[in-house]
Amino acid sequence: MNIGGDDPTSGIIMIDEELDGSASGTAASKDNELDFTKLDLDESNADAQIDDQMFMELVPKSVRPRVNKLKELHNKRDALLQEYLKERAELELKFSKLIKPLYEERRDIIAGLHDDTIADDTIADGKEKSGVVEDVSEEEEEDEDTDALFKADAKGVPAFWSVAISHIDVVAGMMSPEDVESLDYLTDITNEDFADGTGFELTYHFSDNPFFTNRTLTKRYEVPNLFTEDEPILQNVVGTTINWKPGMSLTHREVQQKQRKKSTGEIRTVTKTVKKESFYHFFDPPKLPDLNDVVDEAEVNEVENSFEQDYDVAQAFRSHIIPKAVLWFTGEAMVDGMLNEESQDEEVGGMMGGTPGSFTFAPPTNALFPPYEKNT
Fold first, then answer.
1. What is the pLDDT of residue 128?
2. CA–CA separation, 19 vs 329, rounded Å?
3. Which of 181, 269, 300, 313 is the 20 to 30 A CA-CA neighbour of 307?
4. Longest Cα pair distance anywhere in the chain, in angstroms?
5. How far apart are CA 163 and CA 328, in angstroms?
6. Alpha-carbon distance 286 to 219, whole Å?
7. Nearest to 162 by CA among 154, 151, 171
8. 320: which DSSP letter?
9. What are the φ/ψ torsions at residue 53 (nearest 5 degrees)?
10. Above 60 in pLDDT, residue 222?
């Protein structure tokens, strides 16, 4: 326990010296002093010794009832917080259901299911405003096609999600050129927060494609304090196994190497699987060390950093890309982000969008890290 500074013993020593200096005080004042002489100030085991029970032994008997009363108030506050979290989860669920039809219509527009209706509405709007609908000349159409992201006669909004994703740094940094081609088959990205507010699941919907057979890829996060202002506690992460079509894996490639056998001099060809940089590693969460392995501090930091980056990506989708997809597609969200970084960070979290992605681990009692699961 650190009472006075970065050095876990510095504050204790300082307070102890102050008590020694007041030795001439009355007996009553001594009864109200904290007796730090009961503590072992050895830095290596101070934290292990100062638990709640031991600390209360240091508190004078006359003060303990007041501390206990403060604990009662704290427990009442915790009970109210649980009630808040329950109602917050219900409110998130209520508005999530109201917003869902808007996201479904967005999906259909991207797929081209409303092209004719939107075209008719555009013509009607033009007539109402000016009374005349201007025709686009062939020359203008040619110029438009030359610089356009896709052809003018394209259905819906091609490459919508791959373009939107590529405009947010934390995700774009994971993408390879091959990933971009495969993400053109991404038809929708959805998020569902748990009804009790203890986590969320991202679902990536794909049309039939030459890369893998899955029609959906999911990523599930269990975060008990998802709707509080505290640093998120990451309790569990569940990924998805991608069923790659033969020779189409974007996460690994096969490399053939020639090896000479020392005993006979015979040359043989060995096939090895080599990992490639790819966004699709996101669906295979960081691995946890075996409980029987000896893990040093560097390894612990590496695993924690991997989980932190993974959660940052998840929050980028949940709180930014999904709610503001069209603004990421056009790039407007990039400009807003550069001009209003502080307001972005302060934005309301949940399905409305906003919360940044830093977190704290919630390790089980028998492990250093949260459990890892993978759907098959």
1. 55
2. 65
3. 181
4. 100
5. 8
6. 12
7. 171
8. I
9. -65, -45
10. yes
